[in-house]
Amino acid sequence: AGVGGVAEGEGESTPPPRWATRILPRVAREWLYPPSRGQKARARARTRTAEADRLRERHSAEKSKLKQLEDKQRDTTVHLSRFMGELDEYAHMIGECYTANIEKYTYKVCPYGDAQQDSTRLGTMGVVSREAPRVFKFTGGEGCWNGPARSITVTLACGGEVALVGVSEPSRCEYAATLLTPAACEEGDVGALEEELRVLEEEVRLAEQEHDEF
């Protein structure tokens, strides 16, 4: 018989009694009650399984991190390839959307993104031409019944506040709109807007003065 009452060659060993588990340190327990070959094999298998799980988790985390870096690099490449005006004056429009309620429809235009009429896609914005930097063309929208794919051409114009206006349908399923924005203003436009504002303020002042006199 072996130590702890285990016969040599047996596949299983007698587990240590509870008092030994509570009192004896692990090294002493393993010496008095050595594990069998089967127990050792199972312990090695558990260790290898745990290690494999850790390696899989680490690989998954590294793969996720790599994908995030690749996505960021792709977004940066796309961003740098976009023409956003000679002075990048349209850069602030990325991620922004502008809406207009015309009759029973709500039009939504997202520069450098998509355009919609309610839930109907009017297209995705294409590359801005350096020859016509104030024209945003959205193409490849949902198809019309027996007609072309929907599209919308948005022309930028100088305005004191950003607003989507003048939405129309000059041709079947081909829309047009104007996006008022300070980003489209030139030096002369700014002067004209300031003069218009001054005139309006003067009209308001005169109207208030007449009201006080009555």
Give a verbal description of the structure.
The protein has 214 residues and is α+β, with helices and mostly antiparallel strands. The protein is built from 4 helices and 8 strands; from the N terminus they run αααββββββββα. The protein has helices spanning 18-23, 26-32, 37-81, 187-213, and strands spanning 98-102, 105-109, 114-117, 120-125, 135-140, 151-158, 163-171, 174-181. An 8-stranded mixed sheet has the order 1-2-3-4-5-6-8-7, with no helix packed on it. Strand 2 (105-109) and strand 3 (114-117) form a beta hairpin. The longest helix has 45 residues, at 37-81. It is elongated. 14% of the residues are buried. Residues 1-11 have low confidence and may be disordered.
How do the helices and strands line up, and which of them pair or pack?
Elements: H1 18-23, H2 26-32, H3 37-81, E1 98-102, E2 105-109, E3 114-117, E4 120-125, E5 135-140, E6 151-158, E7 163-171, E8 174-181, H4 187-213
Parallel strand pairs: 6-8
Antiparallel strand pairs: 1-2, 2-3, 3-4, 4-5, 5-6, 7-8
The largest sheet is:
8 strands, mixed
* Secondary-structure-derived class: alpha+beta
How are the strands of the largest sheet arranged? 1-2-3-4-5-6-8-7
Low-confidence stretches: 1-11
Beta-strand percentage range: 15-25%
Count helical runs.
4
Helix content: 25-40%
Number of strands: 8
Q: Rough shape?
A: elongated
What's the overall average pLDDT, rounded? 79
In N-to-C order, the SSE pattern is HHHEEEEEEEEH
What's the N-to-C terminus distance?
121 Å
